[in-house]
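[SOLVED] Need 3D model of a two-part complex

Original post:
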Amino acid sequence: MKFLFDSDTWQEIYGSIRKNKIRTLITIIGVLWGIFLLVVLLGAARGMENGFNKLFGNFATNSVFVWTQSTDIPFKGFQKGRRFNLNTNDIEALKSEYSKEIKFLAPRNQTNNLVIHNFKSGNFKVSGDYPVLDKIQKKKLIYGRFLNENDILSNSKVTAISEDMYKQLFDKDVFPIGEYIKINAINYKVIGVYEPSNTIDIDGDTAYIPFTTFRKVYNKANKIDWMMITAHEGTDIAQMEKDILRTLKSLHKVHPDDKRAFGSANLGENIGKITGFLIGMQFLTWFVGLATLIAGVFAIGNILLITVKERTKEIGIRRALGATPKSIRQQVILESVFLTTIAGMLGIVFGALVLFFIDRALGQGPDAVLINPTVNIPIIMIAFVTLVILGTLIGIIPAHMATVVKPIEALREE
Amino acid sequence: MIKIEKLHKSYPIGKEALHVLKGIDLHIKEGEFVSIMGSSGSGKSTLLNIVGLLDEHDKGDYFLNGQLIKNLNEKKAAILRNKFLGFVFQSFNLISYKTALENVALPLYYKGMKRKERLIVAMDYLDKVGLKDWANHLPNELSGGQKQRVAIARALVTKPKVVLADEPTGALDSTTSDAVMDLLKDINNEGMTVFVITHEEEIAAQTSRIVRLKDGVIISDELTKVAKVI
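Solution:
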């Protein structure tokens, strides 16, 4: 290993590299391109993944939505086409039966109403909700707070509105918290203003009022329009959806095979598809990147082989002057390792630069396509070490070629 | 210094074998200035390559500095070459991207000498061949005679026992040829064994002993006038 730290060794390598500038350049570009592609592709894939994650970010991704439609199969004396509603009993039944699986359950009632503040008005969605909604679909509040347990217990006439609603209903310099807005001839005190979500948003601009208040005001009794259920981590969401529907069917005297009676949507399933796509893309990225990298390394080996042929005579001279095969071999291998190392480092730097510019161009703002396109340092280190090892291995071939030729034959070469 | 007994060498050419050296007996003592004469194909280059450990012989014995040369691996051969032998080639064989000084210093690198030290030694030898001012020039900036002098300095820099010169004047005009031969004579006068291969009578005449080779055998071995004068 001593030769590695010998300035003479490097002097020799510098000499032969400096002499062959074009050769060196082409060699470096071969590997540089490989690792550059790997870095950029991995970074872009990561950016895309981050983009998707942000899209689903504020939404618990392991959620199921359930609502009722009309029955399709006559059952227990009921005609087909019967309409029915979910109710608060269902909630309790589900909560107790699936206590292990269900993390959050939000029953919801919604309607559209004209919302008035002073002389301004607009038609918006009004939603009766429990505070748990904030856990399933995170609300970022600009002012004030979201609904709380107390609002539910006391049937308070309070509401949290969206930023757009605030802008539409209030004058510019009016602070909304504590003001009253009128919905369906009833005054509600504004307790919070939330930011519009730039991710999946099924509510849009909604005035959230306590579930209990909604029930009273709109005379819903124990009926529920629909519910959102979030499962604990690690729960098989598709299975849970099936189980819940089965339970609900039996509670509502619906035929077990009735496919129309309940509507349901499973967010996890859709996200699974996208995750699968992302995994596929990552695999492709690795495949393309590594293949290019290997191609680059082979290019180095190839060029070194040509170089060795080209330098047969020089190697012959060196051997006549007393160079041992070992010293020749060391020099050729070290040249290969040196070139791959330099090329690898340059590739990483250029890749990082390109990712930086991608981030600048596409990664900013709420509509960003690629967010934080980055590559893990350990991954890069592994790629880099692999590169250097491959560089060494590929250097062995020309190094061996350089020493099998007898010095006399090498010298005869013109 | 060099003792060769019943040396045979043949090269395979296809299925046939070309018998190049057919039993050479040669004894060269330390400090001799010997030339090997012969037309092309006489086997003189082969003889030099074997003496220079660049090639292996098939049969017979070869003693270099009293050491029997047999079954050398490349590593041992390289070390012996570096220690005992200095080469001067017809086509100079300088490394094109190294300066004159670096070329001269190269054998010392393989000897394991430190860079600073070897550059000083190399400069000494360049001075000896009168090229101190050209130390930092690349070979393609030197004339043929200068190149050969650099090559001679390189051959001498490790203080070898024997300098082997393969047609050292073959690529030079007569004036520079003489200068190169004078240099070799000087080296010989300092006590070094010099072994020249040539096909030119004038060159051979400047050495002290001429061995004539024909078809792989020695046909004559005689001292020249130069030797007799001494």
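Edit: Chain A has a mean pLDDT of 81.
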